[in-house]
Design goal:
446 residues; alpha/beta; 11-stranded mixed β-sheet; binds glutamine; Amidase_dom; Amidase; nucleotide-binding
């Protein structure tokens, strides 16, 4: 199976280009599992999986799709990698992303452009575009991505797969190259809802290496997955079917709401009035955190170092000027500005307040609803190379996913139809640590 998977990836590589590197020890690992005997009770035994290349691995490079880390190999494995390998999974390779996970199309990778298997002229979304595209293309059954503002759910939506961003703290971030530490979560991309629940079972749980990982008990997410939605109270925020959302996507979501009603759930219109400020708050907060997190790439400690420097300051300046791409530099500048003494009160503090207000909106809805539904993205996959000269236009892609990260909630995208041959994604948002209800409703719909 591992060999077949790798052959398939190599043969299709020209079209999709989902991988930045392959694991040259994968076959050996698979052989060892064969020799020991596949465990029939363990679905991960011998399962080929792909890992986003901002999650560190000992025996493969981890580049975060940046020139800065072009030749970087970690001395340790991320906790999620350790857990999956222990469960018997075989990592076949590391997938492409927007540099340091900053972007929505995977075009910001310093190394290659990944294509959407549904239409090679379109992007697979981002930043976990490689992880989404490889599952969508049927190369691997499951993969891992990371989601700071939508980077699992938006590519899942664009490529017609299932992608879950767990509750903040559900999965250890140890070994995930930090972007916005108070937002980042690792999560699974899969072909169907049940596989996704199995993956979360494998990666969730407290980790002493990540102080923000929760000690909350981890249920078996597959246990009640087939319980149906009878009696479930679902909220449909009117803002999620508002201006800027493609009419065909609105229709698909309204049809999904009818399906849920037929299955015995109630669906009420609600309001999340402050979600519209989410994108603004996110770009201040996430960029501020990024500017601090990315300080470590200084030409001394990790990876790339510029040549021909005169002194230490020159080393920093030349390394960072030539090692980072434009989008990353833009975020570092924006973040440094927001955190500077003269701007902190006006930008960072205001954005932090908006974050709380958005959380309050969600909490109000969850007082008498079990789940929120809506589209994942305002549009389906867009064409490769269509980015406008205004970088903030790309940011509006995440208007429907970002509020979920600001509030730390779990959210999942799953396929809900097609528009002009491209998949439409539906988003299900749950209460904190209630991924089970999301899976239950997703499973009933699919
Ligand atoms: N597209 C968003 C950004 O560029 C989200 C990225 C992410 O979730 N990693 O920041």
């Amino acid at each position: 199976l591992t060999k077949q998977t790798i052959d398939k990836i190599n043969s299709e590589a020209d079209d999709i280009q989902a991988y930045l590197s392959m694991n040259d020890q994968a076959i050996e690992k698979a052989k060892a599992i064969d020799a020991a005997g596949i465990d029939p009770d363990n679905i991960f035994s011998g399962m080929p999986i792909a890992i986003k290349d901002n999650i560190v691995t000992k025996n493969m490079k981890t580049t975060a799709a940046s020139k800065m880390l072009e030749n970087f190999t970690s001395v340790y494995d991320a906790t999620v990698v350790e857990k999956l390998e222990k469960a018997g999974a075989v990592i076949v390779g590391k997938t492409n992303l927007d540099e340091f996970a900053m972007g929505s199309s995977t075009e910001k990778s310093a190394f290659k452009t990944t294509r959407n298997p549904w239409n090679l002229d379109t992007v697979p979304g981002g930043s976990s575009g490689g992880s989404a595209a490889t599952v969508s293309a049927g190369e691997v059954p499951v993969s891992l991505g990371s989601d700071t503002g939508g980077s699992i759910r938006q590519p899942a939506s664009f490529t017609g797969v299932v992608g879950l961003k767990p509750t903040y703290g559900r999965v250890s971030r140890w070994g995930l190259i930090a972007f916005g530490s108070s937002f980042d979560q690792i999560g699974p991309l899969t072909n169907n809802v049940k596989d996704n629940a199995h993956m979360l079972n494998a990666i969730a749980g407290h980790d002493e290496h990540d102080a923000t990982s929760s000690k909350k008990e981890v249920p078996d997410f597959t246990e009640h997955i087939d319980a149906g939605v009878k009696g479930l109270r679902i909220a449909l925020p009117k803002e999620y079917l508002g201006e800027g959302v493609d009419p065909e996507i609105k229709t698909a979501i309204k049809q999904a709401a009818e399906t849920y009603q037929k299955l015995g759930a109630t669906v009420d219109e609600v309001s999340l009035p402050n979600s519209k400020y989410g994108v603004m708050a996110y770009y201040v907060l996430a960029s501020s955190e990024a500017s601090s997190n990315l300080e470590r790439f200084d030409g001394v400690r990790y990876g790339y170092r510029a040549d021909g420097v005169k002194n230490l300051e020159d080393l920093y300046v030349k390394t960072r000027s030539t090692g980072f791409g434009n989008e990353v530099k833009r975020r570092i500048m924006l973040g440094t500005f927001s955190l500077s003494a003269g701007s902190f009160d006006r930008y960072f503090k205001q954005a932090a307040k908006i974050r709380t207000i958005i959380l309050n909106d969600f909490q109000k809805v969850f007082k008498d609803h079990d789940l929120i539904m809506g589209p994942t993205t305002p549009t389906t996959a867009f064409k490769v190379g269509t980015e406008s000269t205004d970088p903030t236009e790309m940011y509006t892609n995440d208007t429907l996913t970002i509020p979920v990260n600001l509030a730390g909630l779990p959210g999942m995208s799953l396929p809900a139809g097609f528009s002009k041959g491209l998949p439409i994604g539906m988003q299900l948002i749950g209460r904190p640590f209630d991924e089970s209800t999301i899976y239950q409703a997703g499973y009933a719909f699919e």
